[in-house]
Every structure is written in C-alpha cells, then in structure tokens.
Design brief:
This is Lipoate--protein ligase. The protein is an alpha+beta fold. The protein contains three helices and five strands; from the N terminus they run ββββααβα. β1 and β2 form a beta hairpin. α1 crosses α2 and α2 packs across α3.
C-alpha cells in the first residue's frame, strides 16, 4: 500500500506499508522532509509497525510522537502528517 501527503507549506511525506492480520507491517516512511537525528526515522517506522490497521489519525500521531527520541527535530512535517499519510495509504 502507498500513500502520499504534501504538508501545507511543508514537505512531501510518503508511506509504504503492508497489512497483516489487521495490523500495519513493514511500514516505511520517506519523503523530502528533514529529521534529526537520522535514526529517528527508523524509530517512527518501528513505532507504527503493529498498530491496528483501523487506527485513527490521533492514535497514529500519538504512536509516532511516542516513538521519537527526546532530542528529535522534525522539519517540514509533523507526527500528524505521518498519521495522515498512513491513513491515505490504508484507504
């Protein structure tokens, strides 16, 4: 599954994923945004893997935010924009 979301005034966020047994699997977030430290992207992917496929944007955004290291900085996108792109991929 594939979804894309252009953040208003920001960057492109892309999600590629699978659904297995009603849960998100093999989630890969990418795009033209900036994220520090770079390993925070893998933390986001791990944070949403295993979430129920029928999770709403709020639950997904909370999972993204919770997965981020304390020192993470997101430029051009937000946890909410990741949730939007995940829901689009699932639609």
């Amino acid at each position: 599954m594939h979804g894309e979301y252009k953040v208003p005034g920001g960057k492109l966020v892309v999600a590629d994923l699978e659904v297995r047994d009603g849960r998100l699997a093999d989630v890969r977030i990418s795009g033209d945004f900036f994220l520090e430290p770079p390993e925070a992207l893998e933390a986001i992917n791990r944070g949403v893997n295993g979430m129920p496929a029928d999770s709403g944007e709020l639950e997904l955004a909370v999972a993204v935010q919770s997965a981020l290291p304390a020192d993470a900085e997101m430029f051009g996108f937000t946890a909410e924009s990741v949730a939007v792109v995940l829901r689009r991929a699932l639609a």
